[in-house]
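step: validate -> pass
step: tokenize input -> pass
step: predict -> running
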Amino acid sequence: MPRGDKSKYTDKQERKADHIAEGYEKRGVSEKEAERRAWATVNKDDGGGKQPGGSGRGKNTGHPAAKTGGRKGGDASSARSKADRSAAAKKGWETRRRKANG
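step: predict -> pass
step: emit ->
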């Protein structure tokens, strides 16, 4: 099987990769790089291609790569005091307002 061949992937895995790639493209990543990252994420989640109808059919693939996002930012900000978080939010808001007005 040549490199890059996607024949072993299920329809669900292909939909998953399309959805992930779409998200990257929305954030300004090139189409080729978004595609590469999307398939890397599917491989990380599911452990590679799975023949449809084979053993493991109907088993939940899970979303391990999607679990990190929410925790990463939360730990850092929860360690700061309420005053610090509030000050950072105000500073961010001022920056966004200033940049929007040019």
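step: describe -> Residues 89 and 95 are 10 Å apart (CA to CA).
step: cleanup -> pass
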